[in-house]
Fold:
Amino acid sequence: MVDVSGADVARLAVAVGAVLPAVAARVPPAPAAALGRLGAADEPGPHPLVGRSAAVAAFRARMAPRGAQMAAGPVRVRPMPPGGTESPLLAALGELSPLVVERLLGALELAVPGLRLADVPDLAAYLGTVHTGRYAFVHTTVQSEAVTAAGMVEQLCPGVADLVGSLCGRLVTHDQVRRLLAVGPGDETSVAAGHGAAHLALAVATAAAVVGQAPLPDLVDRPAAVVGLAVGAAAMLLRAAPMPAAYEAALLDKVRAEYLLPRHTSGTVPVSGHRFALTEGEVPAGGDFDGNGLLSVVDGGVLVRTGAGHGTVRVIARVLAEPPELVDTSGWDEVVEVSWRASRGSASVVGPDGGGDPQLRLMTPPWPGDYRLRVHARGRDDPDEAEEIYELLVWAAPPAPQVVHLRTDLLGHRLRGEPEPARAPRPEAAYRWLRRGTLADAATITVVTGARVEQVLEAFGANPARPEPMREIALDLAARGSIDPWVAALDAGDAVVAVEYNGFQGASESVLVRASAHGRAASLYWSVNADRRLSFAEGGRLLAAFEPPATGDLPPTVAAALTGLDFEDVRDRNAKGLVAVQRFTGHAVTADDVARIEAAGTGFRIAPQA
Structure:
């Protein structure tokens, strides 16, 4: 902080105040509003002044020399003064988006030479020693000329940036200037723009007074230096200054005007102490889940009781314009509905520490009122093995008693003080390894009985005499951008297991007919697009092929393989498909089967079929 006398500050305040309104009128609304929002409370998503990756990348591509390669992220090349400590003002300037700084320079550089600051005090005495002699400067064309010029001034005349910053900090509270910074009511953009433009105008006039008295060589672009120093000083002021009194109401009006229903999003939320929340503020401690086994209504929101004690859970959130017509219980373990009162609105789905994905924040309508919340939950009983998922539905509704639409998990029964129901083990649980392995996203698994590995490979159209390393096949296909099919196979003793990584030949009728010539063949295909196909063949004849759940009449052997498997329930559908394959062929595909195939590392390319 430079110690400037009170008398000099008072004289400068009169001079700055005289030109401040005219300078403020020259500042474009968009960058002015971006500056003006620097003091606003942080909201999810990128800050309006932080260099967004797409914009910065485009700016680099346009400005960089041909052939140059530049690292990702904001580029900040700022001259360091002697001693190696950067001025806070220059640091603040360098943190702003280059595009915003450049736009402000374009709007103000022609106005700076015309500023007439009357009766400015002598400020040269507050400046450091000016460097003389020869100069050499290197800078990148990716940064604004305002940044370059401001840094050059600081190199040649150390202390200019700190003097500008100190003077702005003193002037912003001076009566002669403070009244000119006031912003009246308006919409959010106009309030933010007025706030930003007034503080930037203060900084421009101050920087012009200082730079005008600095003994700088002709090589310095003084207007660009004034704008650069002013933008950095304004950023410092605005980050510390409270927003105008009219801003909160204007921002709320904007948020409400832009809020549309219905809306839908999903993400993950951290869990601690077996809970997360939909809340307008901080997550309160405790929570009473005895009444319904899942939800606890608290001040400002609702706590959700999880099976996992810590970690993250997946959350689907929907805000509806109207109450849902039906209660969806398919694929869920618990469904509970409660009423809650929003005191101001814009509730977020967050963990106890306030964390969570940005898209789950400020989800509910941004106004107070009575709401209904219906929460669907699954996976609470076995969070280490099953995927724990929640779906939250919110809609406006008058208060009503809580409703437990579905109560099937063991945790809910324990919390409600109810006897735990007997539950038969699900056969698909044996295949949960599938979700964590290399086949999780897309594959086809074919199981064949009554055939040797060589016969199965030939059924696929592969040549058993031409094995290749799986890795080399994958690299070759990637290099060519090809999806040519290939297969790996294992003699599992009672059956042959054929695996296609992101392939689907095992789902074709011709392959299954050939493979099942002397026994049975069944396959399950699935893709990243949630496509799925179960196929069954015996004695060289295709019995059935369909996307589960099956419709219509099925051969008895296929129907028996599907008994008790609920494909309407979205949980573990691939695992259920492998249960059906196991029942039909008699072989249970295991993680060890896949591990043996991958350890062998041998694959076979499939020849194109005529």
